[in-house]
Design brief:
Structural class of chain B: alpha/beta
CATH superfamily of the largest domain in chain B: P-loop containing nucleotide triphosphate hydrolases
Organism (chain A): Geobacter hydrogenophilus
CATH architecture of the largest domain in chain B: 3-Layer(aba) Sandwich
Strand order of the largest sheet of chain A: 2-3-4-1-5
Largest interface: A-B, 55 and 62 residues
Protein name (chain A): DNA polymerase III subunit gamma/tau
CATH class of the largest domain in chain A: Alpha Beta
Number of domains of chain A: 4
Distance between the termini of chain A: 88 Å
Number of domains of chain B: 3
InterPro entries (chain A): AAA+_ATPase, ClpA/B, DNA_pol3_clamp-load_cplx_C, DNA_pol_III_gamma-3, DNA_pol_III_sug/sutau_N, DNA_Rep/Repair_Clamp_Loader, HLD_clamp_pol_III_gamma_tau, P-loop_NTPase
Largest sheet of chain A: 5 strands, parallel
Number of helices of chain B: 15
Number of helices of chain A: 25
Region (Disordered) (chain A): 382-442
Shape of chain A: elongated
EC number (chain A): 2.7.7.7
Oligomer: heterodimer
Helix content of chain B: 55-70%
Strand content of chain B: 5-15%
Chain lengths: 577, 318
């Protein structure tokens, strides 16, 4: 297999071939020209921007038999050997495979000897970030003061993993991502040399896919050539690279803005059919929304967007119909989905969920509008609120034994909501905290249960279900329905002991505790506390209802709206607004 | 003809065949696609054809026969040892690749689950992947492209394998002796993975209707059956994962019905799904789906299955 992939075949062999890294090649060439050559270099930058290539070119420039020159000749044996990777004095070491301290010790042994043929002995350590800490440290002394015939060149994509002590001993060169235009230019050069017919649009697509990396771009180009042969048509490139059709993006956003869930789901099905990657589609959709957002936010954001005039026109049209806030919320949903797509096993489902969520997003109302509306309501609705304040029935003092029955407290509505509905009755009472010494009402059984509830809520609520048969300081006899759970658990020794202790405190005597089952249908048992409460509450409700219906305002309201009075609640100690 | 074993992946197969014919094969390929869509089969076919030298591979010469039984001395498969592919495996591979091929014109290696190369191993592979010794052919397979190091990705030619169309899977299943209705259902449940469709035996599939019925009866006021159900599901982690997958697909169908799409997967229980779709609100259903996926994620990360399912069922009931 003699074929070399383009990235290897077209590896730059001179500084002038190196694309997009002029700042590096210029500096290195000047250094060679003026004879001020450092002994250790560190090349860092993203993948495929020319680090390893530069290292090799530098090695050649330093050892070229034509004399040290800013450009290697590439014809002398020294240069050709380095290109082929067979030079004895240029050692290219894979730092990721030879990571240990032993590998570095071996290298240090080697450093001592003079080069066998070339001017310098050059060590190129690629992927240097993978060296172990020990290996790095073992290298420090050698790196600081190597013999004059030795040069080190390190290359890595992750300089942050290289210890600071190594960094400070090297001359560091940061390689930039290659701008799109330069990648396209280089690709054009290569395809012309290879005799391949391909349009500029396709090359741009390829370069965009490469994302600032020359090797990525060339790998993609290879893939395109493998698929299309020497005659490349644009449609083939589109389908092969899975570049998402702009039409599809426009349709998707239009459907989302039009709240059309059905179309949204169809679009996902189409995306799947075309074989696009869900994550890629999501990414492009995010880009598209970003463009809309910029157009909307800046008005004339043409210079921020890398788009043609025709594309801008359609975008503008689409941006018109959506408020900025909605766009931001859509983006938030999509960005979350994008994060999830990275590690989910149902990419399609995640995308579907996100799009459905976006399509059903309730439209946002700006806060200032909301406030304005509230103010208006407040002004208009003031009269109603006043009427309610003026007339307030004095509720009968709640009996102390009446435990609050509303426990499921909803969070207090925010002021805004409350203001919006001024006629809503002040809801819910505070959830009563079990007081350790509840107020006594005279009914000794109710008081006792209240006490128990304060100390041992579990026992208290069980006692509530029992009927007090005998309640005196000498004897407590409580009946439960046959086979009740409460009966069984109150009979166990722990509960008995706890109850006895509490009864002793309450009655200041030691009553005999008796729990006994009630015969079914026995009518003589007094009602238990729960029933009592219910009855009391019902009575109170009727009283309240009577009071309410007799009020003229309520009667009028019922008359006007044709309603019925559903519930009346006392305002227990709450100040009406 | 080795490539005839590959079903429904015309695009990547054509790319590879064209490369072989024109002698322009790259030295490193990265095959990406869901599990069970034919990446492994294609990789083997490609290596077989490259070894044979007769156009697409003859299938009869000794080399092809050795490849067919995976006995070829110049083929070096690498698979995760445990959870990861470790650096020692990569070093071993590098040692092998330095040697001359024994019979074939070149050496080949197939690295499965390339997303599970651990960082050290992935980095160790970089130099080899860029300029392999002696024209070796390296094929990396992955189901999760984002899990592959970008530096590795940049050195390979990427080939995407699309999920298989349902009809093809259905055909295959019928050819394998499943009856028509079962084949149809399994094909729609497989989501484009033939491997999954073939792997799911009848006895293995989860009783979907019972699952949904159970979920429907869950209630927060009566937690005893809820916890019992969670315990039963949690007894077998693999089975629980499968059940969650099924649950996700059912909930997705409900979402699709609510959204007005007809691409429903579980067609056989359509009336049931429709009734659920009208019963549940869309928001609630979306919540349920994300809860289910969260639970699945947690199980994958080795959370306590019992607790995870307790929480999930309580959330689904609430």
């Amino acid at each position: 297999m003699s074929y070399l992939v383009l990235a290897r075949k077209w590896r730059p062999q001179t500084f002038s071939d190196l694309t997009g890294q002029e700042h590096v090649s210029q500096t290195l060439q000047n250094a060679i020209d003026s004879g001020r050559i450092a002994h250790a270099f560190l090349f860092t930058g993203a993948r495929g921007v020319g680090k390893t290539s530069s290292a090799r070119i530098l090695a050649k420039a330093l050892t070229c038999e034509q004399g040290m020159s800013p450009e290697p000749c590439n014809v002398c044996p020294a240069c050709t050997e380095i290109t082929a990777g067979t030079a004895v004095d240029v050692l290219e070491i894979d730092g990721a495979s030879n990571t240990g301290v032993d590998d570095i010790r071996e290298l240090r042994e080697n450093v001592k000897y003079l080069p066998s043929r070339l001017r310098y002995k050059i060590f190129i350590i690629d992927e240097v970030h993978m060296l172990s800490t020990n290996a790095f440290n073992a290298l420090l002394k050698t790196l600081e003061e190597p013999p004059p015939h030795v040069k080190f060149i390190f290359a890595t994509t992750e300089p942050h993993k290289v210890p600071i002590t190594i960094l400070s001993r090297c001359q560091r060169f940061d390689f930039r991502r290659i701008p799109l235009g330069k990648v396209v230019g280089r690709l054009r050069h290569i395809v012309d040399q290879e005799g391949i017919a391909i349009s500029d649009a396709s090359l741009t697509m390829v370069a965009r896919k490469g994302d600032g990396s020359m090797r990525d771009s060339l790998s993609v180009l290879d893939q395109v050539l493998a698929f299309c042969g020497d005659q490349v048509r644009d449609e083939e490139v589109v389908s092969l690279l899975g570049v998402v059709d702009r039409r599809l993006l426009l349709d998707a956003t239009a459907a989302v803005f039009g709240r059309d869930t059905r179309t949204v789901l169809d679009i996902v099905a189409r995306v799947d059919e075309f074989g696009y990657n869900m994550r890629q589609f999501c990414g492009e959709l995010i880009d598209h929304l970003r463009n809309l957002l910029i157009l909307k936010a800046v008005g004339d954001g043409t210079d921020l967007l890398d788009l043609s005039e025709a594309e801008l026109a359609t975008l503008r049209q689409q941006a018109e119909s959506v408020p900025l806030d909605d766009l931001q919320r859509h983006l938030t949903v999509l960005l979350r989905a994008d994060g999830e797509l990275g590690h989910t096993s149902f990419p399609r489902l995640v995308l579907e969920m996100a799009l459905v969520k976006m399509a059903t997003l309730a439209p946002a109302v700006p806060v200032d509008q909301l406030l304005e509306r509230l103010n208006r309501i407040e002004e208009e609705g003031g009269g109603v609120a006043d009427a309610r304040v003026q007339w307030r029935p004095t509720p009968p003092a709640p009996a102390g034994s009446r435990a609050p029955e509303r426990t499921a407290a909803t969070p207090p509505p925010r002021t805004a909501e409350r203001q919006a509905a001024p006629s809503a009755p002040a809801p819910r009472r505070e959830e009563a905290k079990p007081a350790s010494e509840p107020r006594r009402t005279g009914d000794s059984w109710a008081d006792f249960v209240a006490l128990v509830k304060g100390r041992k809520p579990r026992l208290g609520s069980m006692l509530e279900q029992g009927s007090p048969l005998v309640v005196t300081a000498e004897r407590l006899e409580i009946g439960f329905p046959e086979g009740a759970f409460a009966l069984a658990s109150l009979r166990d020794s722990d509960s008995q002991a706890a109850l006895k202790e509490l009864a002793r405190q309450f009655f200041s005597a030691e009553p005999v505790l008796v729990m006994r089952p009630l015969a079914p249908g026995a009518a003589e048992a007094p009602p238990n506390l729960l029933e009592k409460k219910r009855v009391e509450k019902e009575q109170q409700q009727t009283v309240l209802k009577q009071a309410a219906t007799s009020h003229p305002a309520v009667a009028d309201a019922l008359d006007v709206f044709g309603g019925t009075l559903a519930e009346v609640e006392p305002l227990e100690g709450k100040e009406p607004r | 003809m080795p490539f005839s074993r590959v079903i429904g992946q015309d695009t990547p197969v054509n790319v590879l065949r064209r490369a072989l014919r024109s002698g322009k094969t790259a030295h490193a390929y990265l095959f990406e696609g869901i599990a069970g869509c034919g990446k492994g089969t294609t990789a083997l076919a490609f290596v077989e054809a490259a070894f044979c030298g007769h156009d697409d591979g003859c299938g009869t010469c000794p080399s092809c026969r050795k490849m067919a039984t995976l006995q070829h001395p110049d083929l070096h498969p690498v698979e995760p040892d445990g959870a990861f592919i470790k650096i020692d495996q990569v070093r071993e591979l590098q040692r092998e690749l330095v040697l001359r091929p024994i019979e074939a014109p070149l050496k080949a290696c197939i690295i499965r689950d390339a997303d599970r190369l651990n960082p050290a191993a992935g980095n160790a592979l970089l130099k080899t992947l860029e300029e392999p010794p002696g024209n070796a052919l390296m094929i990396l397979l992955t189901t999760n492209l984002d899990g592959v190091l970008p530096t590795v990705r940049s050195r390979c030619q990427l080939l995407r394998f699309a999920p298989l169309p349902e009809e093809l899977i259905e055909e295959r299943l019928e050819a394998a002796g499943r009856d028509r209705a079962a084949a149809r259902l399994a094909a729609s449940l497989a989501g484009g993975s033939l491997g999954k469709a073939l792997g799911d035996e009848e006895a293995d599939t989860v009783d979907r209707q019972a699952l949904l019925e159970r979920l429907r009866t869950l209630s927060l006021s009566d937690t005893a059956p809820l916890f019992a159900a969670a315990e039963e599901m949690a007894a077998n982690r693999e089975q629980a994962l499968k059940q969650l997958d099924v649950l996700a697909s059912l909930l997705r169908d409900i979402l699709l019905i609510q959204g007005g799409s007809d691409a429903v997967v579980n067609r056989d229980i359509m009336p049931f799904l429709e009734s659920e779709a009208t019963r549940l609100s869309r928001e609630k259903n979306l919540d349920r789906i994300s809860n289910t996926m969260e639970a699945r994620q947690a199980l994958m990360r080795n959370a306590n299955p019992r607790l995870t399912l307790d929480v999930l069922l309580m959330r689904l009931a609430g």
